[in-house]
Amino acid sequence: MRTQTQTQLVNLPPELLIYVLAQLDLPALAACHQVCKLLHNTLLTSTLLQYRTLLLLHALSSSSLLPTHTLLSRLQAHTSRWRRLLPGQSYTHPLPPNTGSTYELYGSLFVRGLAISSPRGTATDALHVLQLPSAVDERPGREWIWRAPGTQGWSDFTLSPSEDLVALVAKRPASQSLPRFEIHLLTLSSGLPHPSARSPVLQHDCRDTRPNPQRAAGYSYLLQICGSSLACLFLPREQTAEYVRGEIGEELVIWDWRTGGVRAVYIGESADYTRGGKSVWADPPKTFSFLDEETILVAGTDTGALEICTIPSLPSLSSNSSAGSGSSPAPGSASPPPQLIKRVRLLLPPLRPSNAAILSILTRSDPSPGEGPFGLKKMPEGVRFASSSSSASASTSASASTSAAAHAGPALSAAPAGSPNEEGESEKKAESSSELFYPSPSARLLTVSLSLDSPPDTVPDLTIFVLFSTLLVALHSPEKFLPSPSPSHKNTAAQAYYDASSILVLPWPAWSAHARITDTSHEPHGYVCYTHGYRYITSSLFIPPHLQAQAQQAGLAGLLAPDLLQGLISTRVEVWDFNPAMVRRVRWEQEQARGPPSPPHADEVEPGAEVQWEELEQLVEEGVEQWLDTDEDGSEEDDDEEEEDADADEGMDEGTDGFEEDDSGSEPPAEVDPGAQVPVVFGPSTPRVPAVEQLLVPATLLAQDVFVDPLQSGLSAVVRSMEVPGLLSGLFIDGERVIMLIKRGGREMLKVDVF
Amino acid sequence: MSITLISKEGAQFLVSKPVADRIGVVRDCAYGADFWLGYAVATDDSMGITLANVTSSILSKILVWCEHYKDMEPLVDGDSNMEFPEWDMAYIGHDMNQILFVLEAADYLHIPGLLLLACKGIADVLDGRNPRGICDLLGIVMDFSHRQEVDMDKENGYWRWFLHPT
User: Fold this and answer.
1) Partner residue facing B159 (CB), from A10, A25, A30
2) B 28-57 residues with CB < 8 A to A
3) What is the largest CA-CA distance in chain A?
4) Cβ(A697)–Cβ(A716) below 8 Å
């Protein structure tokens, strides 16, 4: 019946052909390049297609409406900066004192809990929000104090900038002995109850079977928001007697925060054994991560497995109309809360039971998979700090920084004066300030950090990396992991199987080819935003070779004098990129260069780093002299630092200033009074050499009396490293920047490299 | 209320307003003529819009889609990892020629949702094929030798390494 002539893909009008090609994925685009000249040239010459390809290669998404050629040039510059680890900007920023231990880094917001009422940092009742400047879209930085009217302080918080949501676990009054928790849902822009939440407070009663509860049990929390799901894991202190007796325990609660309904409660396996006459839940959850809005991964320490579970959807809104319908601890009094449906169990490497056990486990992946582009639509004005480019002269940057500091001073010290609401309304400019590029929803790396109870000098810590794509394939296409039904090879210990409750069980060998395991942990300890998209950041300490003689003279080899050590030591910051396309590319490039594959992760000396070290050496010497000359300053800070550490930080102080190099000539660090408000320093970006790319090839971890077998793991990554003088007390990564937390004389500073 | 659409061959299709509203050019034509407002005296068979570039078979296929989406909004923008409903994927099928006809017609008729679906269909057909496979599928001669190209920067040359066996 068809009378039309044969249509061909290549005969389409060019604009239609481009539109078709723009919908293809990366393998299809790569294939089309080699099909014919027309397709090849179209792909090469079309700005839209170049842009789409580059987005796909770097696993990024964008919802920007800027012209395509603008986006393309920015994306090219951005990805090239990341690849060479050469920041477009580099600056330091002071942090206010009295920050608590809670913090989040999310969509270019660095948010720390702040104790305004109590200077010792015991009760968090405000947030210090730092919107970091962007090099990609030249967005300026801002900072402001976020306060929630009507809340009494909180124990922990999380936020979802794309939902304009802050979730706070309210501090329980000391008189309240029962573990009843309230999670407040507020907006980030105003601090008022979130308009999309049917009820502004989610309530939950954790089970507590203590016969005579007289005092409140101590809890810590893990929180994550994914779209309209909010999960909170309530973790009681493990050393207490009531925990050991099983009277209180871990509970993971997943809400739909918009409706307030409880989607699931998980407290571990059902009570299948008893301890001291009380039923105890086996393998209680110790950590979790959303894989998507319907899927969550939970893990405990008892069995050593990652469990991928489906979250049941709320049956109907009417049945859960009363918001905060917390799960009832007493079974039978109400309908039991819905349970997670376990689907896949990934077993961690088997440990020798007599020698080792898992002490703690933590899974991390950032940003949350539901997190879209981060848009600041009606944010408070805060204090702007202009992101001067590297071409700005030293004088302008200095004046800009002093004015910013002048603004920052009162805002930080007398924060209650400026209500966020008024500031929010004062923002007239409808500034399009959403992130230009953000990781694609599926481009996530899961890090599993384990600490082991193992013999000394073996393996205290383990870190396992696995991609979300692997986990989701195991969930949705289990046949890819199941052995072929041929009866020829029967190695059941290493093969995937279904257990009695039809959970797909993957022993470690069945998924180790898609995972990476190392016996190092994230350094420095204590902060967790070390993963973003496919990237992971860690660091190691070293003494530059030419300083080693000096170090030995100073007796460093034996008993360490911490202050001198800080001056001599450097930190190597490593960015591990697990993007499969990038791994392919580096492998291909190395093969083309016909060189042998680079040794896995050797401590190589970068060419060109010598200059830095010579500078460093000088600066260290100067720094030690200055430290000896000057009185100790910064001691008026009410910090928890020991005196020795404060002194030691002086030595590092000089090294760090030297790292910002150009400015150190014009404004010597001695002029800056460290006790005063430290100005924002916008130095020109430090001239560095491009990072050398090393490929982490599949490797084997020796058994070392801890594991049953040597551990093979097959996931590759590209490692790029840069070296910074001194010690870091925190290290974070997000889509655009590497953020280093530095302690200087008791005052905390951020050193931010923007890519 | 309904309207008559006339295909290239002259076949007439009587469709209701919500269905016809999915077709951009028909909506524009009809509104331009104040058709739905009743100024033009329109009876069911007196008013027709001729779609001279669309064959009967393709028009009838497109009307199936319009009928399905008369009450709901189709996806109109997205990127390569978006998921279409099952019905859409079954509708568009794997017949490359037919998808291309639908694509051209959707472009001509201004139906963005269907245009995107056709692109997704093509992407699905091409998925997992190597260059030789695509040539065979499209019936075109492989006229490209990548050795000719020398001055490519690395980002643009990604196709060299992306399909490289590892």
Assistant:
1) A30
2) 55-57
3) 96
4) yes
Q: What is the pLDDT of residues A123-165, one digit of tens each?
A: 778 888 888 888 777 777 888 888 887 777 888 899 888 888 9
**pLDDT tens-digit readout, A245-304:** 778 888 999 999 999 989 999 988 765 555 544 555 678 899 999 998 899 999 988 888
CB contact under 8 A, A23 and B129: no
Average pLDDT, chain B: 77
User: What angle separates helix A47-57 from helix A68-84, to the nearest 10 degrees?
Assistant: 30
Looking at the structure of chain A, the number of domains it has is 1
Contact B7, B56 (CB under 8 A): yes
How far apart, in whole angstroms, are the C-alpha atoms of residue A752 and residue B8?
64
Domain membership of residue A695 (yes or no) is no
Chain A 212-241, residues with CB within 8 Å of chain B CB atoms: none
Residue A245 lies in a domain: yes
Least confident of A112-116, A220-224, B44-48: B44-48
What pLDDT does residue A372 have? 67
Q: Is A550 contained in some domain?
A: no
Q: Is A640 on the interface with B (CB under 8 A)?
A: no
Q: Between A23, A31, A589, which is nearest B80 by CB?
A: A23
Q: Give the pairing type, strands B2-6 and B12-16.
A: antiparallel
3-state SS assignment for residue A688: coil
B33: three-class secondary structure by DSSP: coil
CA distance B121 to chain A (A): 10
Cis peptide before A336 (omega within 30 of 0): no
Look at residue A87 and tell me if it is in a domain. Answer: no
8 Å CB contact of A587 and B9: no
Domain enclosing residue A327, as ranges: 159-339
Burial of A379 (C-beta count, 10 Å sphere; 0-12/13-18/19+): buried
Overall average pLDDT of the B5-29 stretch = 84
Q: Rounded to a whole number, what is the distance in Å from the CA of B97 to chain A's nearest CA? A: 7
Query: Where do the H-state alpha helices sit in A378-507?
Result: 394-413, 420-426, 468-476
Task: Give residue B146's pLDDT.
Answer: 54
Chain B partners of A441 at a C-beta cutoff of 8 Å?
81
Q: Each residue of A696-732: pLDDT tens digit? A: 888 888 888 888 888 888 899 999 998 888 888 889 9
| pTM confidence score | 0.78
Residues 17 to 46 of A: which have CB under 8 A from any B CB? 19-20, 22-37, 40, 44
Q: Residues near A28 by Cβ (< 8 Å), separated by ≥ 6?
A: B123, B126, B127, B129
Q: What is the mean pLDDT of residues A732-745?
A: 86
For an interface test with B, the pick among A32, A33, A715 (most B C-beta atoms closer than 10 Å) comes out as A33
pLDDT of res. A645: 37
Residue A119 pLDDT grade (very low, low, confident, very high; cuts 50, 70, 90): low
Point out the least confidently predicted range of A200-209, A522-531, A664-673: A664-673
| Per-chain mean pLDDT for chain A | 73
Amino acid at residue number B114: L
* ipTM of the shown complex: 0.85
CATH label, B2-162, candidates 2.40.50.870, 2.30.30.40, 3.30.710.10, 3.30.1330.10:
3.30.710.10
Report how far residue B118's alpha carbon sits from residue B104's, in angstroms, rounded to the nearest whole number: 9
User: Among all residues of chain A, which has the CA nearest to that of B107?
Assistant: A16
Closest B-chain CA to A11: B100
Cβ partners under 8 Å of residue A540, min gap 6: A520, A523, A571, A572, A574
